[in-house]
Amino acid sequence: MSARVELADLLAGFAAAREAASQPEGATRVPALTAAVHRRRVMRATVTTAAAAAVVLGVGAGVYGLTSPEPTPPAETLTPTPTPDETEEPEVTPEPELLGSVTVHPLLPEAEPLPAGLVEETTPGWSMVTYYPVDRDSGDHPTVLYLLAPDGRLFEVPTPVPLMAPCDFCDGGADDTAPALKAWLPGTSLAIVSPLYDDVELDGHYQVVDLLSGAVLQSIDAPGGSWVTVDFVRDGTTDVLVVTEAVAIEPELAEVTRIERRRVDGTVVAEHGGVDVVLPLSWRLSPDGALLALPGEDGAAVVLRASDLTEVARPVPGAARCPAGDGGHPLMATGWVDDQTLLFTCTAFQAPSGDPLVGPQTAVTTAVAVPLAGEPRMLAPEVVGSVEGVAGGRLLLHDWLAGTWTALGPDGARTDLDLRTSWLPPNARLTRDRLVHVEDQEWNGGPTWTVVSTDLATGETRALLPLVDSASRVRLVVGW
Predict the structure, then answer these.
(1) Are strands 240-246 and 226-232 parallel, antiparallel or unpaired?
(2) Which of 84, 107, 191, 252 is buried most deeply by CB count within 10 Å?
């Protein structure tokens, strides 16, 4: 192939790569398919043109020989041998296979059919969104699962999993209890479903399923008198963590009786015995999935290695103390600042009047970063508001009394956030430096909903979905 052809292909590939790099993470799959088809066509056209030029030059040389003064023998009539480029049919690049079709309904958004292999190429920041009717007995509103790209593109997922349908594994649940998507592992079609009653999750019964095939890979039920919570480990495997919590042994203390790491088929590959924890139990995986933290006694965190569930540390927040006021308690581990640093927080309520029985109370929070190896450092000494999470080193603060949301940076700089919500829904997710959540937009003239993505660094907010009709509900599961 000529140098010109190679250069053209290189430039085309560079342009495609540069365009892909400017897109949101994971959002380049479908445009890349179109670019690949275009480059193949350019290559074929260039090679064919070069071959044709060679034939013309050969004919020109023959003409010059006929007019030469030197005598020449009679030219033999030769039948030119066809070249492969002149006889081959043009290569046809097959269109990407599409899985299923798109459900059209006045209460559903516009979407695209799901290209085969797209789910397997998703990364953290993609989401699964379930549209379902407020009145599930109406029969007119279909329940549909969508894959939501970081740039807002929507693909319908043709799943045989009976989401929001009558639940056949919800032991003892009410008649209108339904299985709902609880967790999803990006890069796969694996998900965890659990019962939902009146839009409230019921812990204790779970299934690990394949959204595309509908296969139930394992069922997880809580032992009698216990609760169980389940999530993916998210460390590059498809393993899940199963944490079983016994009934409280004291008003604010419970025992985690068993922690298991299971393969997706249910095989137990690691386990840990009991550990006393502070209620309410909220175990946290580090961003890389390598460590698991539980809130232990006396303000310490119990940190386990997720690969084999052995204990590696019990960090404490140093000399930091909870702000004075009603409801104060020792700082507790409530999240991860990064892969090796825990976030400890404590919130107390203070009455501006000085009398806790008079007037509203303001939430005041202390937040401390505690490395597993190193000294604690203060992130927020008694700031107004509660800490709802951390992403990209920024704390998400909510002032309940004023109804405002703020991102507090590592340097103390504040960014005001236009979050039109009075509380952070359970399925909201902080991923890298963004918050993705379902937002109630009743202020817009009706009880409608949308999915909103907010940049904690700049405060920029954009809606990823059109407003949802009041007859519909949306359930968001953000991949992380």
Answers:
(1) antiparallel
(2) 191
Q: What residue numbers bound the domain in which 63 lies?
A: 3-71+78-87
Cα–Cα distances (Å) from 152 to 113, 158, 453, in that order, read: 15, 19, 10
In a domain, 60, yes or no: yes
Q: Are 194 and 202 in contact (CB under 8 A)?
A: yes
Alpha carbon of 439 to those of 42, 139, 149, 416: distances in Å? Answer: 46, 26, 18, 17
Helices (H) and strands (E) in the chain, counts: 3, 32
How far is residue 428's CA from residue 440's CA, in Å, rounded to a whole number? 13
Split the chain (480 residues) into runs of 10 and give each run's mean pLDDT.
39 41 44 40 38 36 36 52 60 83 91 96 93 74 92 95 71 61 95 75 80 94 80 94 76 75 95 78 86 86 94 88 68 90 87 60 86 90 87 88 88 88 78 81 60 91 84 84
User: How far is CA 239 from each of CA 59, 205, 245, 322, 328, rounded to the nearest angstrom?
Assistant: 68, 18, 20, 37, 37
- By the 8 A CB rule, do 61 and 67 touch? no
pTM of the model: 0.75
How many other CB atoms are found less than 10 A from the CB of residue 406?
Answer: 21
Distance CA 188, CA 191 (A): 8
* Axis-axis angle for helices 3-21, 29-66 (nearest 10): 160
Question: Which DSSP string corresponds to 190-233?
Answer: EEEEEEEETTEE-TTEEEEEETTT--EEEEEEPPTTEEEEEEE-
Domain count, the chain: 1
Q: Does residue 59 fall inside a structural domain?
A: yes
Question: Cβ neighbours of residue 86 under 8 Å, at least 6 residues apart?
Answer: 51
The DSSP call for residue 126 is B
CA distance 395 to 407: 6
- At 356, list the tokens: 């806790």
Neighbours of 180 (CB within 10 A): 21
Angle at 113 (CA atoms; ends 111, 117), nearest 5 degrees: 125
Q: Is 54 part of any domain?
A: yes
